[in-house]
Amino acid sequence: MSEPLLRVEGLQKHFPVRRGFLRRQVGVVRAVDNVSFSLGKQKTLAVVGESGCGKTTAARALLRLIEPDAGQVWFRGKDLLQLDTNGLQAMRRYMQIIFQDPFSSLNPRHTIGQIIGRPLVLHGLCSSNEADDRVRAILEKVGLQPRYISRYPHEFSGGQRQRIGIARAIALKPDFVVCDEAVSALDVSVRAQVLNLLMDLQGEFELSYVFVTHDLSVVEHIADDVVVMYLGQVVEKAPRPSLFQRAWHPYTEALLSAAPSPHPGLRKKRILLTGDVPSPLNPPRGCRFHTRCPMAMEHCRREEPRPVTVAPGHTVACHLYKDSL
After folding, report:
1. pTM (predicted TM-score)
2. Residue 277: which residues within 8 A CB-CB, separation 6 or more?
3. All structural domains of the chain
4. Spatial separation of the C-alpha atoms in residues 175 and 6, rounded to whole Å
């Protein structure tokens, strides 16, 4: 088995909650708690879960756009969390991000040529005189006209802006790209075009993706492996075919049952979860899902489950299963 391109171990991010005139800390929001996963070369890892489960925070923390509190992120033989400012800047060329909002992620004061070209000059990949030619070539790669180089972001539609965001991400020829809900703000027809573009670029530029999404239809289309998060923790990890063939965790089963079926005549049994998602400020003791789980046992309320292997490459954190499976 080849060495993974990216390996995340024990990633943790807690946000302090301060109140009162003196802004004293009264608690912490456990946004990401002991998250671990790996990303293979030229593979797509989907991170899925409900809103507020911590998937975006985890993705941004591994890039150090948000400084994590603990853990290790191994990439190119180095732990990214131990790098100083200069070391981190040098590594940023090889890891990029496509943001969810194609409107706020582009500087309205800069032209497209400046948005895409300045990182090329900053990292020494070309001179200022050569940047425009490089930008025009990149724009063609993402399906935009080279003459758009002198235009500003407000002159483009949402789908075009997201293509500009993709162009900015691939311009430095990174090893992996975090796609943070990269298609959720787009119309359905445009979403399919952008997904196909990302898959084409993955083959051409040998990219790996960490794809953060709540849309399981997107996961089934683009992912090689899947990580399912709930309330800051990973509850299930599996290759995509294995997960869609059989989900072992009750939460994953509920997510899959809620996904629309592409076949109108095929009805799935819907699993309805009762209650609201608990607050990450005060997560439940034991298994964090037990307050909504239809199969919860007394043991689930006392002890936090450990991940167990239920199939090749497929692990689940649930007291329903034992390591002997």
Report:
1. 0.91
2. 50, 52, 53, 231, 292
3. 6-108+152-239 (3.40.50.300)
4. 10
